[in-house]
Write a structure and sequence with these properties.
alpha/beta; Rossmann fold; TIM Barrel; seven-stranded mixed beta sheet; six-stranded parallel beta sheet; 20 helices; 15 strands; globular
Length: 495
């Protein structure tokens, strides 16, 4: 199948904009990232490889409001429009669904004859509800690559795996779609050239050493999926399985070559749920970066139980290659609470050892801590804050436990009839409407209040600020002080 002319493409993939203020409040002006919509670029690369003409409209990076987005879509005149519902916050894409829903309604008012498709994490987690609630015509459950290709090729919609549709009041679905197994062979192309690569911005904490080149940034996956079953995580709602599939190291290095040599990228965020997991994957990538002599600042995810037993030489290699940051899901300072969320196979000593080994190699952490997990009370949440203060990661992220659609906690919340947000913005942890889960001992308001207290207690702590100044300099310390001067307003707390 040959590609069509540059105008009126077969499909335009949309990354919705207009959500930064709602999701991050005033923190969105400087401190949040403007992330690369890797999934849209990967999907575009796949479809382009099948001979289709594809465009990407990154309304978020271009700072388009909803009306401007619809105007741009009307000018493009694509045969199909697909809104790609992924977000930079791991597996939580629910907060953008308010803007997605509004955009859907405006698109159908302006372009009623153009098929409108929703794809991504949230639609995969709640396909029937999403299709009923939103003004879309079709929905893709799962990864979506083959589903969209079949649709563009004109296959019967009733037979396309992974495709859901509405016929009057009925919601109908095709068979489940199989995941792509050979990522390198079937997903060889990332359409970086379809993105406004000069518009992205690294997380502020990644740039504590030097804020001058924050916009030389990109995010990438090098693997898909996770073999573990944490109850607060929802990525398996898209993948339908608990396993990791890898692109080979040569593919990853080829993408890094493109990012560095074509776009001047300095900061790379690796979105994999588990990058530092299999040394047969991560070591050749690190060694390849070293061979090329790139000067990069890279962030990637790791696990406590992996770092606890990792070869220290591997950490040294990662550091030399530019892996200055690891994200680590420490979650809680209580062994009792850790067991409640499926992480009961290691204890606090393993956490201390893992952090100590990485710190010994000069690697810093954006470590995740979570308040309001099942069983949490004030004592166990204080244990979590105390552990954070003891470990002193350079930039911890303090979250509240949420019933993310597609997670086990979401199913449990429905079963127990726990209060859930009445708007998708209620899943934005830094948003005004945020509503986390209560526990057996604490209300949702008490959990939020403690989280915000913990944030201030940590980031205003003189010992922490002195450490930041020693390690990163005065500008970094001033940046942290500027961040903590912004107080989040919370509806649940009566602000």
């Amino acid at each position: 199948m040959t590609a069509r002319a540059a105008r009126n493409p077969d499909i335009v993939l949309v990354n919705v904009g207009g959500t930064r203020k709602q999701v991050y409040q005033d923190l969105g002006k400087v401190f949040s990232a403007i992330d690369t919509p890797f999934w849209a670029a990967l999907t575009a690369g796949y479809l382009r490889g099948k001979g289709f003409d594809v465009m990407i409209l990154d309304a978020n990076a271009l700072n388009l409001d909803l009306n401007e987005t619809v105007d741009a879509l009307a000018a493009i005149g694509a045969r199909h429009i697909a809104i790609v519902c992924y977000s930079q916050q791991a597996n939580v894409s629910a907060p953008i669904m308010v803007a997605v829903g509004d955009l859907c309604r405006r698109i159908k008012q302006r372009l009623p004859e153009t098929p409108l498709i929703l794809t991504g994490w949230h639609p995969s987690a709640l396909p029937e509800r999403t299709l009923r609630e939103e003004a879309c015509d079709l929905l893709v459950k799962g990864e979506g690559f083959r589903t969209l290709a079949d649709l563009l090729a004109g296959a019967d919609v009733a037979d396309i795996p992974g495709l859901w549709r509405k016929e009057g009041p009925e919601v109908l679905r095709g068979p489940d779609a199989a995941n792509i197994r050979d990522l390198t062979g079937e997903l060889p192309d990332v359409a970086w050239d379809l993105l406004p690569m000069d518009r992205y911005r690294a997380f502020s904490w990644m740039c504590l050493r030097d804020f001058r080149e924050r916009t030389k940034f990109a995010s990438i996956f090098t693997s898909l999926g996770c073999p573990f079953k944490c109850s607060f995580c929802a990525i398996h709602a898209t993948y339908g399985e608990h396993r990791i599939r890898y692109w080979n190291p040569e593919w990853v290095l080829r993408q890094i070559d493109i990012l560095v040599n074509r776009y001047g990228v300095k900061h790379i965020n690796i979105h994999d749920e588990l990058f530092v997991f299999d040394p047969r994957h991560y070591l050749p990538i690190a060694e390849g970066i070293l061979e090329r002599g790139y000067d990069l600042n890279i962030n990637a995810f790791a696990r406590v139980d992996v770092l606890d037993r990792v070869d220290p030489g591997h950490l040294d290699t990662l550091k030399k290659a530019g892996f200055h940051w690891l994200k680590l899901g420490i979650e809680t300072g209580s062994t009792r609470i850790r067991a409640n969320v499926g992480k009961d196979h290691y204890g606090i000593d393993a956490v201390r050892n893992a952090v100590g080994k990485a710190h010994g190699a000069g690697i810093d952490f954006c470590a995740n801590f979570m308040f309001g997990l099942p069983g949490d009370d004030y004592g166990s949440m204080q244990d979590t804050l105390n552990l954070a203060l003891e470990l002193m990661p350079a930039f911890p992220s303090f979250f509240c436990a949420m019933a993310i659609p597609g997670s086990d906690l979401y199913s449990e919340a429905l079963e127990k009839k726990l209060p859930l947000p009445d708007t998708w913005l209620g899943y934005a942890s830094q948003g005004y409407d945020f509503l986390p889960l209560p526990t057996e001992h604490l209300t949702a308001a008490q959990v939020v209040e403690f989280r915000d207290y913990a944030f201030d207690a940590y980031f205003r702590n003189p010992a922490y600020l002195n450490m930041i100044e020693r390690k990163f300099g005065r500008e970094a310390m001033a940046h942290i002080r500027e961040m903590t001067a912004i107080k989040l307003k919370r509806k649940i707390l009566g602000d």
